Each structure stands twice: as C-alpha cells, then as structure tokens.
Amino acid sequence: MVEKKEFTKILVANRGEIAVRIINSAKELGIKAVTVYEETDKDTCHVMRADEAVCIGPGPRKDYLNIEAIITAAKQTGAQAIHPGYGFLAENPDFPEACTNAGLAFIGPPPKVIRNLGSKVIARKLAQRAGIPVIPATETLSSGKEGERQALVFASKFGYPIMVKAVSGGGGRGIRQYRDEKSLLNGLKQSRSEALMAFGNDAIYLEKCLDRIRHVEVQILADQYGNVIHLGTRNCSIQRRHQKLIEIAPAGLDKKLSDKICQSAVQVTKASDYLSAGTVELLVEPDGNFYFLEVNTRIQVEHTVTEVVTGIDIVREQLLIAQGEPISISQNQVVERGYAIELRINAEDPKNNFMANPGLVQVYQPSAGPGVRLDAAVYQGYEIPRYYDSMMVKLTVYGFTWKEAVQRLARTLEGFLIIGVKTTIPYFQKIVHEPDFIKMNFDTSYVYTHSQLLEYQEEEREEVKIARLIAEVHAHGYNPYTH
Fold first, then answer.
1. pTM of the model
2. Quick check: is 461 catalytic?
C-alpha cells in the first residue's frame, strides 16, 4: 500500500540554475519552496526566487554538503520534503537516509538504489543480469602490487588505450586514459588519489577504451506502483574533459536501434528497483553495438532537451511521484517531436583549455524568439564566484527539423550579449556553422578532432562596445575615456 502525502512546502538543497528550475515546478503545483545558501553565494538567483532562504554557513561549497545543517533548515521552516537537484549531495546515499530518519521525504531514489547504482561495479552487474551488454572491465582493483598485476593482465588482453575510472565516479570526474604500460602503472596511484579526493574512497577499476563512440542517454521515470517509462534518447557526445557541452534530443539513431536502447534502459531500471527520475547512459559504436555505462540517480543538467521534445515536465513528475502519485503519463503517450539542442553557456575560456573565468557580469542581454528556452542563474551586475560551477545559463532551442534547430541556434547565439567574463558563446558560434555538426556527424572525440573551432576571433561588435561603455559609465559615474 502506497502512502500518499501532500507537500505544501519543500526545501531545495542546491543552488543556481537547477534550484530555480525546481522552485518553478514547485510553485506551479502550489508548493512553497525554501532554499539554502552559503554566505559566499547570497546574491544568486535561487535566493531571490524562493519563498524563504536560509543561510547554512559561511561557505564556500562545504556547507552545501552539510547534511545536518540542511535538515535543520528544513525542519525549522516546516518543509516536508527535500529535493537535492544535481551535484553536491544528490547522489550521496547518506542524504536520503538522513532525511527519512528526520521524518522528511526525499525527492529522489531510496538510499539502497543510490548506493548500488553509485558503484559502477554493482551497476554493471545489474545491467548484465538485465541482459544489457557492458564494456569489458575489471572488478575493483586490489591495492598495491596486486592491483598493478591485475591492471597489466587486463591491458595485455584488451590492449591500449585503457580507461581507469573511480568506482564511485560521476560527472566526468575520476576518469583517466592511459596509452601504454609505463603511463598506466604511474597513473594508478594518481587515479586513486583523485578518486579519494572526489568521492571519499580510492576504489578504481579498468575499462576497455572504445573508439569513435556516441554517448547516448535515456531519460526514465519510475513510480511506487512499479510503472517505469522512458522519455526517449539524448545525444551527449560533444564533451570536454568527459563533461558535456552540447546535448541533443532525440539522439538521431535509427528507430530500431533507438527502441532497443530504450527498452534496455527500462530493463535495467526495473532490475534496480528504481524510483523517481533518472538517466541510463550508454555508449554506441558506429556499427550500432551499444554498451551500458552507468545510471545517474538524479535530475540531470540536460533534462531540458527531453522536456522540450516531449512536453513533459520531469521535475513536476518527480514531485508528484514523491507524494505517492503514479506517473501522470503512459508510455504510449510519450512522443518525441522535432529536435532540441541545449548549450551550456559557461563562464569559461575555451582557448585556455576551458578554464573557468569568474568575474562581474557587466552586461547580460539574453536572446529570445520562437523555440528558445533559457534556464539561468545570472543577471546583469552579478558577480560570478570562483567557488562554484562555471555554468551561467542553459540555452535550449527547438526546431521541427534538425536543420531548423541548428539555424535557430545560430540566430539565438548571435543575439546573446554577455560582457565582463569570457564565455563559451564564440566557440559555440563556430560549432553551429561547422559541416560535421550541421550533418549531425559527431562522437565523443569531436572537440579534440575539430581543434580548428578554437581559432575564432574575439572581435567586439559595435553594440558590444556601446554596451561596455554604458556599463563603465554606470560603474564610474562618468565616461572614463573623457577623463
């Protein structure tokens, strides 16, 4: 028997764009939203948009990871549930466990599911039991010399390059590639150290490196009544440092392969006793062979492209499922119509290895028009802190055809104006005119095989120069060029 609850207030245990996104869906359902913030993050949009905001510490970053402080804030404000967003505590099984112990609902999967799927080794076994192909890999490597021996045996069988991954990895962290025996042996210790720093344990394993692959995701929803549906595919192949830059829905696969992949995703979701929204990630070779990669037990940055092509509010579904409601749509009601493309407009310098470029946003003039969606957490005059993720705004465009979506994206980027920090916009402006992108011909090596895209000229348009002058006059109280 499923116990139904009715939330009147929830706490969003996150920051920035995703916190604003969750707040919006909560408000549409008539649910008040409380948010938390660190003192170093007090000027961000999510603090302004929430019904209540609670400072949980001086920061930076550490207080967003303080489970006790977040639960205390929820209890003090009368929130009945907590939504973790993505990042921070979203995939820490101790968080939902602590919520339950405090009498709070956790808007996401139960602790056991997060714990099992958070281990890539356990997740692979679940996928195998569900009949889904997995990439050849080792078990968790032993420590010391025995681990080195296991690594060399695996490398001799499958050849180089070899991927070394953190067992508890996620978000592109804890992944390294080694191309020969010497670099592999030297790198094992470094990989363990990185895993320990990022995830609290140094467990690593080896995986065969696949070439010319596409990174494909399947968005899923699962409720407490045993219903599991998929919301189609996404292509997330364009990445830097194993982190995504551009996401597309649907993934552009032929229907037979797409259906097979989506059914596999549903199977592994059922096998793991999943609940809430999640994402099954797979790697697809040019010949159509595909392999299970992992399950993300949270809402993802790129969920917007799926929402745009299906018309389904994924966060809304999460909130309803957490209240004991069944999924509000059936599988045969899910239709992917047209194409959506999402860009992560980051405060980064693509020419400097995509290094973060925090600073004052002197001018923020977003672009708009038909088929354009913006999910932002910045505004003109906002100081982007150096302590947090560099994403400023997610730009998602829709087109009835792939060609229309690309053309709309090019037009929208042309109208965007951000002054004060370097951004990924000029890099994206090169991509939308690049022949392989226009033909939807890309894989996970795209950024590295198209290095010419970094050869853009950072020339200021006339309106940029005028906007910069206005910003400086506003800041100084006079025209600095006449004094």
1. 0.89
2. no
